[in-house]
Write a structure and sequence with these properties.
- The protein is built from six helices and five strands, in the order ααααβββββαα.
- By secondary structure, it is α+β, with helices and mostly antiparallel strands.
- Strand 3 and strand 4 form a beta hairpin.
- The relative contact order is 0.12.
- Helix 3 crosses helix 4 and helix 5 crosses helix 6.
- The chain is globular.
- The strands form two sheets. Strands 4-3-5 form a three-stranded mixed sheet, with no helix packed on it.
Length: 153
């Protein structure tokens, strides 16, 4: 995703209205690695700018997606997510806490479904589901049986 300044210039050049609310959303999404939902972004934005509407957040995120500045992704955890990383990448999702992080997968673009000759693949998205190190550590501390299994490795 471009910088907030570059996004502002692009919005203006496309004849789109540039407001302080939109500029706040640009800055909140720039380099944001949390893959927020519109609702979670709204909570952060409204704490900084009371009066901003959820509709403005949704509209701005959708416009940024239309412009190719961010990706809309559904990873099966808490609704549609917004990702400012538009480079080729995939995701790892923690089943315990729901944190999402970007991962690279070598050769993912070459994956093709078997027995689907009548299906044209347009893009490949890989989602790894498991447990992040922080949640695994918390689980291990609570479970002596699991701790014994880990120490045997």
């Amino acid at each position: 995703m471009n910088s907030p300044t570059e996004l502002a210039a692009r919005f203006r050049s496309m004849g789109r209205k540039l407001t302080p609310q939109r500029q706040l959303i640009f800055s909140l999404m720039h380099d944001n690695q949390t893959h927020p939902t519109a609702e979670s972004l709204y909570r952060v934005a409204s704490a900084q700018m009371p009066g901003i509407s959820l509709r403005t957040v949704y509209q701005t995120l959708n416009e940024l997606a239309e412009m190719g500045e961010l990706q809309m992704i559904d990873l099966g955890v808490g609704g549609m997510r917004f990702d400012p990383n538009v480079d080729d990448h995939h995701h790892a999702v923690c089943n315990a806490c729901g944190k999402i992080r970007d991962v690279k997968v070598k050769g993912a673009g070459a994956l093709k479904p078997k027995d689907a000759s009548d299906f044209k693949v347009c893009e490949v998205g890989v989602v790894f589901k498991g447990q992040c190190a922080e949640c695994e550590s918390k689980t291990a501390k609570r479970s002596p049986v699991l701790q014994a299994k880990i120490s045997k490795k």
